[in-house]
Design goal:
This protein is an alpha/beta fold. It contains ten helices and nine strands. The strands form two sheets. Strands 1, 2, 3, 8 and 9 form a five-stranded parallel sheet that branches. It has a four-stranded mixed sheet with strand order 4-5-7-6. α1 runs parallel beside α9 and α7 packs parallel to α9. The two termini are 16 Å apart.
Length: 304
């Protein structure tokens, strides 16, 4: 895996299809956690807990488990209703176990024609556990993609690792498995090509800055402060996109943003973004497929 270092000021203008300025992806992370693990080590469940005192993996942590499960039972449905009212699509990431254990949620996303992105097998089993066992990593990715195909009804086109914790081998494996986009890297406001042993794969950057875990839980923002932060991000990128297209991703989790006292931020942001012309409510697959055909007009291979 390798990618060129080409600063944004050294690139040609990025011209999105149909004269769009800003590609906007609002990501709903559909994640599943095992209640216990066969381990005495502290259980890192792929995201910060609401009660921070760690328990061994083989001891059930009901406060944190049921806090996360709120997102599956209640929060995601409130968020789906908010997107329906706004008349815009979400892009959803999906642990394989969500398809196996929480099929009603995947069915609801499929019924709306929203994007689903493969997102590991189970949220608490990070790919970094297999850093020095690449064949085990490949087996886990393949198992995840098989469940995706069986439960979603089509092949996956892209990948986001749990907690963004992939390995140096992950893009190579993803490209070799026929995927066309990869979301783990957060180093840009535009797509770019990653070169792998099996050809090119498109980086469609995720964000931990524009993320409800970061802003609500790590920085302690109120609902209003969160809304102002994401609007500020949107405004600057929208202004910059007048010269060269930009990509904004907002990462949300149903057990965080799906609570009643926070849903206003999502509702008002969708309304605000809709009030602007030239916003492309894109899927990552659409961006990647377009970029594979048009990257030479943006960052020609060998520019670095």
């Amino acid at each position: 895996m390798a990618y060129d270092f080409v600063p944004i000021a050294y690139r040609k203008p990025l011209k999105w299809p149909n004269g769009a300025r800003l590609a906007l992806i609002v990501t709903l992370n559909l994640e599943y956690w095992d209640l216990v693990k066969d381990s005495e080590a502290p259980y890192y469940a792929g995201g910060p807990p609401v009660i921070p005192d760690p328990l061994p993996g083989n001891v059930a942590d009901f406060p944190n488990f049921t806090w996360r499960e709120y997102g599956q039972r209640v929060g995601i449905w409130r968020m789906i209703e908010t997107f329906d009212e706004a008349g815009v699509p979400a892009s959803c990431t999906m642990n394989a176990k969500m398809g196996l254990e929480r099929g009603a949620i995947i069915d609801a996303v499929n019924e709306r024609g929203w994007e689903l992105v493969a997102h590991n097998y189970e949220q608490g089993d990070l790919l970094t556990n297999y850093t020095f066992a690449p064949e085990e990593e490949r087996a886990l990715i393949r198992r995840s993609l098989k469940v995706y195909e069986d439960t979603v009804g089509r092949k996956a086109k892209g990948w986001l690792s749990c907690s963004l914790r992939g390995t140096p081998n992950t893009p190579d494996i993803c490209a070799d498995e026929g995927l066309i986009f990869f979301c783990d890297y957060m180093n840009d406001d535009q797509p770019y090509l990653i070169q792998t042993k099996s050809g090119q794969i498109v980086s469609t950057p995720y964000s931990v800055e524009m993320n409800d875990f970061t802003l609500f839980h790590r920085r302690g923002m109120s609902t209003t402060a969160f809304l102002e932060a994401v609007k500020e991000q949107f405004d600057v990128l929208y202004e910059e996109s007048g010269a060269s297209g930009r990509l904004m991703n907002l990462g949300l989790h149903p057990h965080v943003s799906g609570h009643p006292y926070r849903i206003r931020a999502l509702r008002d942001f969708l309304k605000y973004a809709k009030s602007h012309d030239g916003v492309w409510w894109a899927t990552r697959e659409e961006i990647a497929a377009w970029y594979l055909e048009n990257h030479e007009s943006h960052i020609p291979v060998g520019t670095a």
